[in-house]
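Summary for the steering committee. The consortium agreed at its last meeting that each partner would contribute one worked example illustrating the joint modelling workflow. Our contribution is presented below. We chose a case with several input lines so that the handling of multiple components could be demonstrated. No manual editing was applied between input and output; the record is shown as generated.
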Amino acid sequence: MKKSKAYRSEAAAAIHETATGLFEAGVIDKRTMREFDDSCLTPIHEFTPGEIRALREREQVSQTVFAHHLNISKDSISQWERGEKRPAGPSLKLLSLIERKGLASIA
Amino acid sequence: MKKSKAYRSEAAAAIHETATGLFEAGVIDKRTMREFDDSCLTPIHEFTPGEIRALREREQVSQTVFAHHLNISKDSISQWERGEKRPAGPSLKLLSLIERKGLASIA
DNA sequence: GACAAGTATAGTACAAAGTTCTACAATTAG
DNA sequence: CTAATTGTAGAACTTTGTACTATACTTGTC
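What follows is the complete predicted structure of the assembly.
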């Protein structure tokens, strides 16, 4: 996965709707629209074991409950926090969402 | 992953906050709280290749763009839709979120 | 028309994620 | 004291997801 520019999510959402309208009206082309689309995604980055634990503790849940929210096993959370394994693709997306918008946003 | 009861997400969110308050006030115990927590999660189910494609087309995006949103490769989306591989744990969670709340909800 | 770019299929090979199982502490609840 | 919860630890195992090709259809542009 490559880079992705950072935008404030709420502002981005609003602007995005406007852009969608412009696209449908034929004001901006497909290419611009797609690249714009990408730039609106929540920035995704790697997480250190400590960051994962801090994130979970911020949300005040046990490894088991945290795992349920991510739809993975509790063992995996333990492995992430101990640095035995590192979360990948879709898991990083979910962690980024939690970091930005809180655990409730993916409930 | 086990079962999970279905609740309307908005109503559930409100009720959940109330329950959290009750827990903090000591009215309900930890166990009840945790089980309640689980029941509030968006129900997760398997997706057939056709359902995945239908979901993507409902959101009007190409495989590439869809992949970016899920933070996976475009090849994986293609494989899902052709039934060559099946989305697992965290991927299913994201698909379920999109199905319930739309692609924008995980932007 | 020719040419490039975007979209999707198809096949291979591979690393690593995530699962499941077990056992063992430490803490807390009843 | 007993039982349940929480987290660590290590193992073997399955399969996702990646990366790399090549091909074909469509679309837009010069």
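Residues 1-15 of chain A have pLDDT under 50 and may be disordered. Chain A has two domains: 9-39, 49-106.
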